[in-house]
Amino acid sequence: MKSVRHYFALLLLLPFLVLAACNNKSEENPRQLIAGESSKVWKADKETNAQGDKERLSNTEEEQRMEFYANGTFQVREAGAFQGGRWNYNATQKELELTFDDRQDVKEVFHVQELSGNKMTLHAADGSTMKLKTD
């Protein structure tokens, strides 16, 4: 009789266990974390040099904003000037690739060390690191 009650209790709990398992978020889309539904604005938060020492952000860097659009374009706003280009996220390599409109022959590639809805850490080829946060 005890085993029947345990079996019945298990049957009652089974739908809740299934719902809880289905409710777990799958891994978020990195492109959406970078650009949001249509666009997302990022600003520099912290910077370190290749040796890992903290660097003070310049006034220009503090004022600079980078807006990523879901269509794969971006725009950098700095001191009233704008620069645009195209971006791509390589999920396999965890790399953010930037190509500026005025420098089509140059592709800047950053290794993405951290990516969430409001934080992104980019590691440059020279060893420096830039931590960004949403604006």
Account of the 3D structure:
- The chain is α+β, with helices and mostly antiparallel strands.
- The chain has one domain: Lipocalin.
- It has 3 helices and 9 strands; from the N terminus they run ααββαβββββββ.
- The protein has an 8-stranded antiparallel beta barrel.
- Strand 1 and strand 2 (54-55) form a beta hairpin.
- The longest helix is centred in the first third of the chain and has 22 residues, at 2-23.
- The radius of gyration is 22 Å and the shape is globular.
- 10% of the residues are buried.
- Keywords: Signal.
- Residues 1-20 form the signal peptide.
- It comes from Cesiribacter andamanensis AMV16.
**Number of distinct beta strands:** 9
What name is given to the CATH topology? Lipocalin
Q: Helix/strand/pairing class, anyone?
A: alpha+beta
Q: Could you say how many structural domains there are in total? A: 1
Query: Which runs of at least 5 residues are low in confidence (pLDDT < 50)?
Result: 6-21
Fraction of residues in β-strands: 35-45%
Coarse shape: globular
Helix content: 10-25%
Q: N- to C-terminal separation? A: 62 Å
